[in-house]
Amino acid sequence: MNSFTNDEFEFSFIEEGFSARDILEQKINEASFSDDKDAFYVADLGDILKKHLRWLRALPQVTPFYAVKCNDSKAILKTLAALGSGFDCASKTEIQLVQSIGVPPEKIIYANPCKQVSQIKYAANNGVQMMTFDSEVELMKVARNHPNAKLVLRIATDDSKAICRLSVKFGATLKTSRVLLERARELNVDVVGVSFHVGSGCTDPQTFVQAIADARCVFDMGAELNFNMYLLDIGGGFPGSEDVRLKFEEITGVINPALDKYFPSDLGVKIIAEPGRYYVASAFTLAVSIIAKKVVTKEQSSSDDEEDSINNKTLMYYVNDGVYGSFNCILYDHAHVKPILQKKPKQDEHLYSSSIWGPTCDGLDRIVERFDLPELHVGDWLLFENMGAYTVAAASTFNGFQRPTIYYVMSRPAWQLMQQIKEQGISSEVEEQDVCTVPLSCAWESGIGQHTATCASASVNI
C-alpha cells in the first residue's frame, strides 16, 4: 500500500499510561462546559490492529477481506488496507470507496450475488474481476457485461442456528450448483471458486464444517467440467466481542481441521474470508447524554410507606441517539445493548427499573426495554461498548438528529507496529508475537483510570 496521505482521516495519539477510556472521559468533561452534550464515539484503531494479529494467529491459512458494509468509515478502511487486508464490496459505491484509498482491484471481491448491470460494467471497467453469483440469470448478466470476470459460486448453508440468516436470500443448493457450473461452461464464463456464509451470530461451529465439506463437493464438480477452481471464500459470521455464546477461537478451532481435511495446503487453493464485525465491533464505544426523563409511578399501591413508594417507581430516560441512528443495530442486527454508567454509583444506591429511549418522535425508538439503574438526571452520560459493527454504517438523520462525531485514537506503539507491517509486511516475529503483550490502548485494556485524559496535541493525517 502507498503511504497514508488522505486528509479526511486523522486520529490522535494516546500517550503512555492513558487509554481510549481516558479520551472518552476527556470529551465528556469538555462537554460539561457546553449546552451541546451531543452523542459521540471514541474509536480505538489499535483495537483493529490487535484483532488483525489475533486473526493471523488463529487462521493463518485464511486471508481476510473486510466486509465494507459493516462499517465504511475511511479511518477503518485505511487502517485495514495498511495491514494488507482485502475488501468485500457489495456495490459500486463501496468499490469506489476502497479504490479511492489505493486498494488494488485484485484485493477486492464483489461479493453480492445480485448485481445491477451498470455496476457489473463499472467493476469490469475498473479491473475488479472477482465476483459472486448464485443463479443462471446472474451468470448471463456477467457473461454479457464482464467477460473477464472470475466468478465465485455462492452456495447455501444450513444457517438455522444463526441470529441473522442469509441463505434464505442467497446461495445455490448442491444440485443447483452442478446445473450452474454446466451453464457457466456453455457460456464460457470462468468460475474460479466457491463461497458461502453461515449467517451472522452463528451459534454452531459445525455449520462451518458442513459448508466447507459442501464446497469441496462443488470443487469436485468443477474439476469434472474442467474448471480450474482455486479460491474458497468462507464468508463471515465471526464474533467481534467477547459477550457472545460462541467465541472466536471456538470457531477457528473447528475451521482449521476442516480446511486441512477438505482443502489441504498442497492443493494450492487460496482461502479468504469476509469478516466484518470481528474487526470493528469492540473498537467503538458510544457515549450518549440523557436529554429528558420521566418518572412513572404505579397506581396499585395506596400505602404511604416510603419503601413501597420507591418500589412502585419506574424511570424513563431519553438520550440523544436512538434506533434511527447508531442503535439501528437493534432493528437490523438483532443487537442487545447494555448501558454502562459513566459515573460510578454510590454504594447501596437504590436501583429502579428503567427504560431508555431515543430522541425521535417515533414510539419505535426504544433502545432498552428494561434495565435496573440508579436514579439519573438530565445531563448524565451513558456508555455503550462494542458499537462498531452495523451501527454508523446504517445510521440515518431521521427527525433531523445528526450522526455522532467519531474521535479516532491510537497508541504510539500500535502506530509504530502498524507502520512496520505496512512497510515490511507481516514478519514471523510479528506473527508469532503474543497479542496480549502488545502495549496497545485497545478494548479498554488499561482500565477506567482516575486521571484526566491525555492525547497528543497534534493529530496525524493518514
What does this molecule look like?
A hairpin with an 8-residue loop joins strand 14 and strand 15 (366-373). The protein has two domains: 29-42 and 282-299 and 308-409, Lyase, Ornithine Decarboxylase, Chain A, domain 1 (Beta Barrel), CATH 2.40.37; 59-275, TIM Barrel. It has helices at residues 20-31, 45-58, 74-82, 92-100, 117-125, 136-145, 174-187, 206-224, 248-262, 277-280, 306-311, 328-332, 412-424, 428-432; strands at residues 10-14, 40-44, 62-67, 86-89, 108-110, 130-133, 150-154, 190-195, 231-233, 270-273, 284-297, 313-319, 340-341, 352-357, 366-373, 381-384, 405-411, 455-461. Residues 1-8, 434-453 and 456-460 have low confidence and may be disordered. The protein has 14 helices and 18 strands. With 462 residues, the protein is α/β, with parallel strands linked by helices.
